[in-house]
Amino acid sequence: MRDNIIGNIVTVTVDRLLGSCHPVYKELCYPVNYGYVKGILAPDGEEQDAYILGVDVPIEEYTGKVLAIIRRKNDVEDKWVVCPMDINYTREEIMEQVKFQEQYFETEIIFDDLERCH
Is 27 part of a structural domain of the chain? Predict the structure, then answer.
């Protein structure tokens, strides 16, 4: 995970559009846009994955702020939560929107770098 990413502006390339289903696990459908940040590698060796919240139509690319990090305690990668500059969500609101996928992992939602030190 890149240090100090929360609050930064990133561009997400969407490869799982809102309303689409996972290419392998067909029963897993995406209620949010989901994709990756080009050029930033995650610990799994793939580009950094990100959920896009606050955009209610399928899109192919989105530039927004990194609001939070979803840390998977039982996996090697974290997911970023990207949203419009003027929108904020609580932990509960984020989890409600990403539980379709995150329910299979033990997760915590981090809002700032200070939380990682506790």
Answer: yes
Distance CA 76, CA 78 (A): 7
Q: What CA dihedral angle connects 80, 81, 85 and 86, to 10 degrees? A: -160
pLDDT digits (tens, 9 = 90+) for 62-84: 999 999 999 998 888 899 999 99
Q: For residue 44, give both structure tokens.
A: 């799994």
22 close to 63: Cβ distance less than 8 angstroms: no
Range of the domain at 64: 9-117
Contact of 98 with 70, CB cutoff 8 Å? yes
Query: Full-prediction pTM beyond 0.85?
Result: yes
- The phi and psi torsions of 99 (rounded to 5 degrees) equal -65, -20
Beta-ladder partners of 44: none
The tally of domains found in the chain comes to 1
* In contact, 32 and 102? CB cutoff 8 Å: no
**Which DSSP category does 111 fall into?**
-
